[in-house]
Every structure is written in structure tokens, then in C-alpha cells.
Amino acid sequence: MFTFSEIIYSQAMHNYATPSELKISLFNYLSSIKSSLTEQRNPMKKLKFLFGFVVIALTISACKSDKTDIPTSCDGVHWSHNGSEDGQDKWPDLCTGFSACGDENQSPVNITGVVTDASLPDLHFSYSTTSTEIENNGHAIEFSCDEGSSLSIGSLQYELLQFHYHAKSEHQLNGQYYPLEVHFVHRASDTDFAVVGVFFEAGEENDLFSEFLAHFPVEKGTYTDTTAIDLASLLPENKSFYHYSGSLTTPPCSEVVQWYVLKEALTASPEQLAQFEGILKNNYRNVQALNGRQIFSKE
Ligand SMILES: [Zn+2]
């Protein structure tokens, strides 16, 4: 049995493993108060007990570290990659819908120690054209895609929804970053996404960027025009890939993604890469622990 002062002192010294344990101790203390009150006849002693009561109630309500204080709704919850209050280390605690961000099968990862698996099905891209809709959503530059483009992997068919960019790259290859990575996001169902990642390296100018970089919204906003973008032309020729199971790399970080990171990198000129970097401002998530996951390789 703890006395009240011991409880407060222990809380101050962080001796309790969890706020729940503190509450159990406070409950025990309250039980002792109740039995004491029924025995006490001195009004001053009753007052002292009641004062202790109020202090305890305030202590419980001030117990901000309790997990039950995480907002249950994620509506309107702001997050960022590098903010001190809402940056990536804080994502799991911003609201209960973001709790997966703290789970075990997260993305991106450092691609290393890969195992060749020739039995993996190839990626079959059936990409068409899309009209141009470029959005800076505050987290990335994203191209929305018209319906009609898909990716087949074995018996599964995924619809292309959009593609967007991260600078630096999110995935690493043997511990090394690339300056830029594009993610082609495909959906088969709400619980089954296939995202194809492609690295960029400095080299020849990139045609898509030559045409649209000047129109990329530098702040939140959308640019649209009627230009048809040939989606198939955005992929490298060689479709060899690394594959593993992971998550969305932004909140809610749902672990619903089959990742395919292509081995062949695309190119953009150093000037284009620098311009992109200036717009995206380090919108990449740090690599996450593999926690026993294997990364496969297919030629
Ligand atoms: Zn992404």
C-alpha cells in the first residue's frame, strides 16, 4: 500500500511503468480513504482527506502520457515529415488511425541482403495515357491518373491511381540514397495495393520534367491541362525488381502494400533534381526496420 505522497513522488520520478499502474495505486489509496472516512469523527481530518481527493482527481486528469489520450479521430490531423510536433517519430501517437505507423512491417526499408526468387511472377504494365493533373498536396507532387491503366502480377490486377515523388529517395539500396524516387500507386482492393518504386540518378534530362517542372505547384495547389501523358514512357525499359511486403510510407501507414522497387534507375539532369528537391523539401520517411522480413529479387 502506497501513501498519497509516495504515489505523487513516484509519478514525479517516473517510477511507474505505465499510467495504468499509477491509477491502480491511486485506486488503492482511495479505498483506504473511504474506509478511513467512515471511521473518522474529526471534521478537520475529513477536510484533509477531501483535499487529497481533489489533488488526486487533478493528477489523473493531468495524466497526459496515457495512451487513451490519443485522439480517436484522424479527421483534420496534421502530420509532417520533419516537424517537431507532428514529424515522423510522432505519427503513431497523433491519432489512433495512425497507430500502424509504429507497427513491425513498415516502409520504406534499406534494400539489402536480397534473395533471388525466379518463381516470382513478372510485372505486366498495361499503361495508357492520362490527362494532366498535378497536385502539390503539401506532402508530395502527385500526378492523378485517369482510369484505364493497370498492372498485372500473376492472377492479380491492380488499377493505377496516381504517381508521386519523394526527394531524397525513400528506399535505400545497400544503405545508399538516390536523389529522387517515384511511386506508382496501384490498387486491387482497400487491403491490397502494389506500389512500384523507381529511383532517379543524375544524368540526361527527364522529358516529363522538361515539360512540367515549370508548372509544378510550389505551394499546396493543383495544375491541370489537356496534355496527354503517355504513362508507359515514364517507366524504365528493364522491369527487374526487388520485392517485399510493407506499408504506405505516409499516415495512416497501413500495412497493405506489396512493394516492387525497380532495379533500373531513371535519369534527370542535376538542375532538374535540384529544382525538385527545392519543391519537395525532404519529403521522405526514414528507412524502417525489416523485423525479419525478406527482400526478394527477380530479373
Ligand atoms: Zn510515396
Which SSEs are present, and which pair or pack?
Layout: H1 4-12, H2 19-39, H3 43-61, H4 91-94, E1 110-111, E2 115-116, E3 123-126, E4 129-136, E5 141-144, E6 150-153, E7 156-166, E8 172-173, E9 180-189, E10 192-202, H5 207-212, E11 221-230, E12 241-246, E13 257-262, E14 266-268, H6 270-280, E15 296-298
Helix pairs in contact: 2-3
Q: Mind telling me the C-alpha Rg?
A: 27 Å
In whole angstroms, the N-to-C terminal distance is: 66 Å
Q: What low-confidence regions span 5 or more consecutive residues with pLDDT below 50?
A: 1-40, 53-66
Approximately how much beta-strand content do the residues carry?
25-35%
What is the CATH class designation of the largest domain? Alpha Beta
- Helix segment count? 6
> What small molecules does this complex bind?
zinc ion
**Class inferred from helices and paired strands:** alpha+beta
- CATH homology group of the largest domain: Alpha carbonic anhydrase
State the helical fraction: 10-25%
CATH topological fold name of the largest domain = Carbonic Anhydrase II
Could you say what the CATH architecture of the largest domain is?
A: Roll
Strand tally is 15
Order of helices and strands: HHHHEEEEEEEEEEHEEEEHE
Largest sheet, in brief, is: 13 strands, mixed
**Kindly state the mean pLDDT as a whole number?**
85
Our count of domains comes out at 2
What does this structure look like?
The structure is a single chain. With 299 residues, this protein is α+β, with helices and mostly antiparallel strands. The protein has 2 domains: 66 residues; 194 residues, Alpha carbonic anhydrase (Carbonic Anhydrase II, Roll). Strands 2, 3, 4, 5, 6, 7, 9, 10, 11, 12, 13, 14 and 15 form a 13-stranded mixed β-sheet that branches. Strands 1-8 form a two-stranded parallel ribbon. Helix 2 packs antiparallel against helix 3. The longest helix has 21 residues. The N terminus is likely disordered. The structure holds zinc ion. The site of zinc ion has 4 residues, from strand 7.
